[in-house]
Amino acid sequence: MLASLDDDPPILICADLQAEYLTEGRCHVITDADAIMSRCLELMTLWRGQLWPLMHVKRIAQAAWFNPASNLTDWIAELKPRPGELAFEHPLPSAYSSARFAEYMANMRNIRCVLAGFSLDETILSTVVDGFHRSHRYCIVSDAVASRRPGVGDAASYKQAVVRVIANFAGVQGSSELIGSSGKVTV
Q1: Distances from the Cα of 145 to the Cαs of 5, 154, 178, in angstroms?
Q2: What is the model's pTM?
């Protein structure tokens, strides 16, 4: 995902940074959430400092088991959207299931998106695949993404397998590769 002079700045999309993923005892709890949140905050700080576009997407399922009144869907306090940042709610795994998100993305040119956050195996994977089919360029930050505990096997192997699948549709970079030693983003 090399940038040209005609490209707009990359858009950082923060996926599903919600309290649900931090709540012990919940099936969606993420064991390495602190490390992922730290990297997401580092990326958000960089984007905000450059005045680059920053989006937040939040899953609001429409299933019988989902309680939208619950505070579990709330943004994580230190990672919540600030005034002027776009926020979208999506009912299905892909962020493109939000009509507003899909419309916004359709109106962007030379779009390059960097994805970080939670729900690697649902929101991030499905958004990348949807974006791929719309000719949107994505890159995930491999050390700033995570998913819930898998039903079987260990979490690290599961994450690696999902990242390998995503690599068929998007770029994959670690935060140190993305930011580089100069502090400049390379996507």
Answers
A1: 29, 16, 14
A2: 0.88
Q: What is the pLDDT of residues 130-154, one digit of tens each?
A: 999 999 999 999 999 998 766 667 8
Question: Which residues make beta-bridge pairs with 115?
Answer: 13, 140
Burial of 64 (0-12, 13-18, 19+ CB in 10 A): exposed
Distance CA 135, CA 130 (A): 9
Nearest C-alpha neighbor of 8 from the set 103, 112, 107: 112
C-alpha–C-alpha distance, residues 56 and 80, integer Å: 8
pLDDT above 90 as % of the chain: 60
By DSSP bridging, strand 171-173 and strand 137-145 are parallel
DSSP letter assigned to residue 122: I
Q: What does the pLDDT read at residue 117?
A: 95
For 184, residues 6+ apart whose C-beta sits below 8 A from its C-beta are none
Contacts of 170 (CB under 8 A, 6+ apart): 115, 128, 131, 132, 137, 138, 139, 140
Contact 165, 142 (CB under 8 A): no
